[in-house]
């Protein structure tokens, strides 16, 4: 280890960035911690976990960990210059950031694949096989996402001498993005075809509204995922340019992805929606009891 320089080197620009990033990071941590807490409470009550709950729990944990690591990395790198800090800290942060980011991306891809297999309706033999076996495949998908994230961390150290394009491809983020694109096209096509059949046959399907809501939710997730992937590429391009407005914008967008998509999951999932309503009812009950207590004391 080299000598530690604890001199505070942050400028007004750095302080502004740190405030914005900190607010975003802690908001995202709270949102994903809510998903993890509700999932664990559901597991305690039901004594079982279905496939979607497993993916959402893994996704919430990976995003919470990702926000913790990237926040610590961003704040520390702005306060101290890495050349005068501890020489062994930078590789450690780099590996942790690589693992948390890749696990977040792959967990999101697993969620999209699960929705595609569960919701889409195709008559191909392989697709029917996946629909039947998806509950058994989900744990292996999550395990594969962890293994791939570890492999990407190894490739990250080996790819530093190559160009940014090869550096990005070695991460495998592009593969996860291609999986999301393919799943999104299949799923949106299946939902659109079902919607057209219901309109042409003039049949009233009670699930039509749910299908339209699913299309909107999945399309918004696809757009957010695409923006996050683009920001990841641009971040690696602009990573060597200090105090660049583009770098700040990319950081804001990267911090927003785990928070915004988790909010979409909360309000589109009935279990999390009931938990939010229950929390609001609990707060209103507490406020009402406090008000009654104050009224009785004054009288």
Supply database-style keywords.
single chain; 299 residues; mainly alpha; Rhopdopsin 7-helix transmembrane proteins; 9 helices; 83% helix; membrane
Write the layout of secondary structure elements.
Blueprint: H1 12-46, H2 51-79, H3 89-119, H4 125-158, H5 164-171, H6 173-200, H7 208-238, H8 245-268, H9 270-298
Helix pairs in contact: 1-2, 1-8, 2-3, 2-4, 3-4, 3-6, 6-7, 7-8, 8-9
Summarize the structure.
The chain is mainly α and 299 residues long. It has a single domain, classed as Rhopdopsin 7-helix transmembrane proteins (Up-down Bundle).
Structure description:
The chain is 83% helix and 0% strand. α1 (12-46) packs antiparallel against α2, α2 (51-79) packs antiparallel against α3 (89-119) and α6 (173-200) packs antiparallel against α7. It has helices at residues 12-46, 51-79, 89-119, 125-158, 164-171, 173-200, 208-238, 245-268, 270-298.
* Contiguous runs where pLDDT drops below 50 for at least 5 residues: 1-6, 82-86, 161-166, 280-295
The total count of helices amounts to 9
- The CATH topology corresponds to Rhopdopsin 7-helix transmembrane proteins
What would the principal axes of the Cα set say about the shape? globular
Largest sheet: none
Counting DSSP E segments of at least 2 residues, the number of strands comes to 0
Global mean pLDDT: 73
The SSE string, one letter per element, is: HHHHHHHHH
Supply the CATH class. Mainly Alpha
**Structural class computed from helices and strand pairing:** mainly alpha
The CATH superfamily turns out to be Rhodopsin 7-helix transmembrane proteins
CATH architectural grouping: Up-down Bundle
Strand content: under 5%
**Proportion in helices:** over 70%
Subcellular location: Membrane
Membrane topology: Multi-pass membrane protein
Organism: Anas platyrhynchos
Main location: membrane
